[in-house]
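thread from #wetlab-drylab

HS: before we spend reagent money on co-crystallization trials with phosphoenolpyruvate, can we at least see a predicted complex? here's what I'd submit
DV: go for it
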Amino acid sequence: MRKKFVAGNWKMNLNASEAQSLAAELKAQFEVCENADTIDVAVCPPFVYLSSVAAALEGSTVELGAQDVYFEGNGAYTGEISVEMLKDVGCRYAIVGHSERRHVIGETNELINRKLHSALAGGLEPILCIGELLEEREKGQTEAVIERHLRKGLKGVGKEQMLNVTIAYEPVWAIGTGKTATPAQAQEAHEFTRKILADIFDEEVAQATRIQYGGSVKPSNAAELMSQPDVDGALVGGASLKTDDFMGIIKGGIPPQGDCSSCCRNCGK
Ligand code: PEP
């Protein structure tokens, strides 16, 4: 069974003391959360706060991730951050291909693929974001976009390396808009994603790969989204900036313990 994985993408938000407090609060609340060992959790602060957040999370099972990474190891690449630097400050994960980097900064699938390879080669676990724009969904191109992002983003990746890759399906129309994909829409896209993974690699890789959903996830919809058979967690933007909201989402991803009659997390079962 795939262990659920919830990651918070803090984007370009917070100042130094807010970032430290958020991390410290999360550490404290996650420590006393029941069955915390049944879920993986990470936060991805802005680069400049990675070290202080790492210090605030010291001793916690909450992991650290970066919001991006560059593919070169070192040298004259002004403004960029390498895999080694991220490892050095305690990162385990790096988001690659976030829709804001694709559509605001203009990153291509080819660039994203280079970043992903570099992350894997250097021992970082990439979270590859994929997903369609609203106009693409309206034109019936959702599956074509998912397939293109997967085939190009994962080009040249080996089966063994896929053990360290997470996919985040994030329909762009649902990111930061308050508009969430319905659980059925998310499941449909995730099932299709797994089908393409089976075609690129094999069924074993497809079944083992974690696919997060991202797009206006909040405590009130997290459990139902994550109870879909192919939804293995969440990549969370806005709601990861408030400890109570993020903890509510994490709790929504913790598998129900015991029998359903004693638990109502609104998971739809
Ligand atoms: C994201 O940034 O990946 C995201 C899903 O944002 P939000 O949760 O705010 O929609």
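DV: The chain has one domain: 4-260.
HS: ok that's useful, forwarding to the group
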